């Protein structure tokens, strides 16, 4: 528990740092690169496939997905701000979850399904003169709008009163996290196709562990 709280504190501090850095650069950056004007704020969209990345015997990874609209704003020739509004679904399986009560209860064979509205906020740096390749990093701020944990609850006291019951727990609430990515830009006529690989980590109040997952993103900037 102490370790999780320490990690949570670090993630919150880094998230605040990235958020303030994003606002500061956005406020003071000059129109170094002239871009065409859009009537709407968002100038792109993407879809991605995600998969949790746990490497322990108690957890089985599952696939999920993300869909989003995004805004990529050029601050300098080699630097951009990236702001997205994203719907995401994250799934994984745990064989056993210890419940911190006085009866030593457990929650077994648990299928997690978390549907969230997420705002990834990051800074993108081009790593070549043609802006074909980039690295990106930032913070994730989100809300779980429909979280479900379905499994078998085992608990009770005294021992001869222990029962097993199949239950579904619903949960919601906010979360914060961090992400990093590498990607490429591919010109398509007047638009820009982008592909990137991301690693994400986030914490929420319901679970006592770090959610880790990777995504492959394919999108179009118009």
Characteristics:
222 residues, mainly beta, Porin, eight-stranded antiparallel beta barrel
CATH level-1 class: Mainly Beta
From the 3D coordinates, which CATH architecture would you assign?
A: Beta Barrel
- Percent of residues in helical segments? 10-25%
How much is the average pLDDT?
A: 82
Q: How big a fraction of the residues is strand?
A: over 45%
Number of helices: 1
Low-confidence stretches: none
Principal-axes shape call: elongated
Q: Describe it for me?
A:
The chain has 222 residues and is mostly beta strands. The protein has a single domain (2-221), classed as Porin (Beta Barrel). The chain contains 1 helix and 9 strands. An 8-stranded antiparallel β-barrel has the order 1-3-4-5-6-7-8-9. β3 and β4 (79-98) form a beta hairpin. The protein is elongated.
Draw up the topology in text:
Layout: H1 2-28, E1 44-52, E2 59-61, E3 63-76, E4 79-98, E5 106-126, E6 133-155, E7 163-188, E8 191-204, E9 211-221
Antiparallel strand pairs: 1-3, 1-9, 2-4, 3-4, 4-5, 5-6, 6-7, 7-8, 8-9
Give the structure's gist in a few sentences:
This protein is mainly beta and 222 residues long.
């Amino acid at each position: 528990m102490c370790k999780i709280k320490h990690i949570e504190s670090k993630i919150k501090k880094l998230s605040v740092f990235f958020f303030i850095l994003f606002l500061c650069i956005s406020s003071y950056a000059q129109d170094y690169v002239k871009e065409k004007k859009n009537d709407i704020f968002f100038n792109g969209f993407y879809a991605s496939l995600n998969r949790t990345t746990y490497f322990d015997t108690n957890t089985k990874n599952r696939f999920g997905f993300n869909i989003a609209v995004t805004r990529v704003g050029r601050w300098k020739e080699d630097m951009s701000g990236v702001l997205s509004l994203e719907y995401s679904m994250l799934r994984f399986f745990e064989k056993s979850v210890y419940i911190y009560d006085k009866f030593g209860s457990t929650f077994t064979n648990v299928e997690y399904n978390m549907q969230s509205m997420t705002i990834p906020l990051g800074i993108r740096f081009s790593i070549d003169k043609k802006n074909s390749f980039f690295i990106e990093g930032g913070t994730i701020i989100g809300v779980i709008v429909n979280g479900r944990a379905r499994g078998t609850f085992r608990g009770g006291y005294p021992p001869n009163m222990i029962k097993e019951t199949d239950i579904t727990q619903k949960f919601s609430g906010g979360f914060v996290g961090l992400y990093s990515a590498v990607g490429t830009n591919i010109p398509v006529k007047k638009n820009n196709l982008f592909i990137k690989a991301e690693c994400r980590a986030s914490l929420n109040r319901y679970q006592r562990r770090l959610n880790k997952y990777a995504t492959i993103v394919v999108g179009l900037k118009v």
